[in-house]
Amino acid sequence: MKKNLFTYFPHPIFQYKLDNYEEHNKELSKYIYDLQKQDSKGQKLSNVNGWHSPFFDFSSRETTGYKFLIKIQPYLADVFKSYGWVFNPQKVKCSGMWAIINKKGNFNTEHIHPNSNLSGAYYVKAPKNCGKFKINNPHSISRDKFPLRESPNELNRLVAEHEIEEGDLLIFPSYLPHSVLPNQSDDDRIVISFNIFVSPN
Question: pLDDT per residue over 85-101, tens digit each?
C-alpha cells in the first residue's frame, strides 16, 4: 500500500557538552555550596528533600551566575538557529537561574516552567545512577485514552527517560512536563536550571 507519514509538531530536547566543563564545574560547585551555606533551608518547589537555591545573582558581570550565563550564549544561539528564530541578544532574557542539590533518594516531581520560551538544565555534578531526566508527553489527552500497544515507538510513547552526565547542557521548550528520578548514588547530584524568554520590546 502507498503511505505517507508526516510527523508534525515535534518537542525537541537539545543536548550539548559544555566546552571545558571540568574547569567551569569547579567554580560552579564552590559557588553553589557557598550559597547552600548561606541559606541552608533553600526553597521548596518541585524538589522533594533536595536543596533548591535562590535565584543566582546577576547584579554584576563579575558574578559567577552572570559569567555562566555568558558561557551558554553560543548554545542558546544554536537552539534559536535550529528553531529558525531570530537571535537578538538584546531581547533574549534570562528570567531566573538557580541550582538544586539532590542527595541520595532526593528527586524532583513533574513540573513545567511557565512564562518562558525555553528552559535548561546544566549538570555540574552527575555521578552514575544519580537520576535520569524524565519527560512526559505534553498532550494530556494522550495519557487518558490510548489503545493497547503492541510495540513501543515514537508515535505511542507517553514517557521518555534521558541519561545525563557531568557537563551536559539540556535546552528544551518550557512547556514540556519533566521531572528527575531519585538519586540512587551516594554522591550529590548538582544541576543548574534556568529560564529564557524573548522580550517583545
Answer: 999 999 999 999 999 99
Euclidean distance between CA atoms 51 and 48, whole angstroms: 8
Residues 6+ apart with CB under 8 A from 151: none
**What's the rounded Cα separation, in Å, for the pair 177 and 113?**
8
Residue 163 pLDDT: 94
> Rounded to whole angstroms, how far apart are CA atoms 68 and 65?
5
Beta bridge partners of 162: 133
Whole-number Å distance between alpha carbons of 120 and 178:
11
Rounded distance, CA 1 to CA 166, Å? 47
What's the pLDDT at 181? 96
Helix and strand numbers (H, E) in the chain are: 4, 11
Distance in angstroms (rounded) separating the CA atoms of residues 50 and 106: 5
Strands 47-48 and 107-111: antiparallel
Residue with cell 517583545: 200
User: Considering the entire predicted model, what is its pTM?
Assistant: 0.93
